[in-house]
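Re: duplicated header lines in exported structure tokens

Our pipeline writes sequence and tokens for each protein into one text file. With two proteins the header for the second block appears twice in some exports. Here is an export where it did not happen, for reference. First protein block:
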Amino acid sequence: MKQRENQFWVAKNLKELTAAEWESLCDKCGRCCLHSVTNGKTGKIQFIAISCRFLDITTCRCTVYADRNQKDPNCIKLSPAKVGQIKRLPYTCAYRTLAEGRQLEWWHPLVSGDSNTVHEAGISVQDKVVSGLHVHPDDLSSFELI
């Protein structure tokens, strides 16, 4: 696996990143685009195997990315200041990983140099979820937690 020479994510903190560097941290796993439930007793967030209606579940890319916050007011726009406050970010999320002082995993495209390693490693939601486009909101509770 080839590693990029410019490891900006190691040399800079999240607040120092350029807009392009910030965007490149997203591994395109699609996990943050899943519906979730919060356990009332433990407060633990669990993801449901249903994606946002705008996630292409084959490519794990948002189909309305530039306008996502207007199309879906519940879509969270990440920023360095918000990363530590958003409890529903998956443990594998690069933004959360770096905010918590951990290193990016081998499968992250910035480390591997290959955008497919996130899928090959089984980290992404590719082929694991149903699009919310095809699910009525009242039926969310009948789907499997992942």
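Second protein block, exported in the same file:
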Amino acid sequence: MDAGEFTRDEIEAGRRLFAADWQFVAAAGSDVSLPPMRGTEIAFAGRSNVGKSSLVNALTGRKALARTSRTPGRTQELIFFTGGSTLNVVDMPGYGYAAAAKSKVAAWTALIGAYLRGRANLARVYVLVDARHGLKPTDDPMFDELRQAAVSYQVILTKSDAIKASELAARIAEVETALAKRPGAFPGVLTTSSHEGTGMEDLRAAIARLLSERKRP
């Protein structure tokens, strides 16, 4: 998505949405421990160490709302946050961590599958992809799972500050070409840098637009 695509009203709506007092709600390690559905949910998925927790913190303006770690695979539960409004944010377990035990991977996979299929208020999953590396084969199972669960999803390129502008443009084009072959993917790729704070205004506006569209009859 190009900068400037969003209206001033959408940008302001996004700012207000994430200026709220965001708080931790629950951590669910199994489908039976999922909190009750309320309002609208969006979720962030991605490979281990792609920067999901850092993005949640940057998005909400809270430095330590979501726990970050240099250790891949640390997040093993679905972590729920709310801003006290109609929106709830979910930090999903990272996938693709080769050193994780098969039993643990199987548990994560089952949890994610149950969540995607059983959450009627889930509006969209944002799949985070490291801009330095692009799409990897380990992303395919997640895309397949989202397609099978009929959940809308969109890709966000993280750590966009770590590569040159020309490389980023090429990466966006590469990802968009790959996603064009997946009818379940929402068109357009968002780019962010949690470190620099770039792309947060557009991401907030995109989420505000999503909420607005869901309210329409």
